[in-house]
């Protein structure tokens, strides 16, 4: 009887395939799960159009440069309070042509957009009850900003600008030009950029 049991056990062992290694068993289980989760794709019908392939988005390119230049800075005034100001860039070839921006009381920062060209900067106090002469961006402005001495060059600081250019730190702070200086331009009405 022992022989019969032993032969039966050996016969079963011979018929049973050997167990796969642990890694293969895990891989087989994953494959079975994937095939259960995603049924095979059906082929398209013969008269169907081929699927569209998405086109690659065109690379982003920078837009055209701005046709204007930007001027930024601060305006000061020789008093304890800074009045509202009208800051203007005037064309050197025609000082009647100007682009202006208004500032509020105690708001010293300004920004102007102007076409390419050569410009001078002036600021007129607003709502002060008196008509005052303008402050200038002059050759002396940097000297005055650093509390320098002998800041005597009150000629206009001319700015030649190209399209798309930005200039910053343009402080209009020269209120101390001599009375015998050449007459200054009048406050322009202010052009509008298109």
UniProtKB/TrEMBL annotation:
Say yes or no: keyword Transcription regulation present: no
Ranges that cross the membrane = none
- Is Kinase tagged as a keyword? no
Region of interest called Disordered, as start-end residue ranges on this chain: 18-68
Q: Which UniProt keywords apply?
A: Signal
- What segments bear the compositional bias annotation Pro residues? 40-57
User: Where is the signal peptide, in residue numbers?
Assistant: 1-21
Composition-biased stretches, type Low complexity, lie in: 22-39, 58-67
- This chain belongs to which protein, by name? Lipoprotein
Provenance organism: Arenimonas terrae
Q: What is the lineage of its organism?
A: Bacteria, Pseudomonadati, Pseudomonadota, Gammaproteobacteria, Lysobacterales
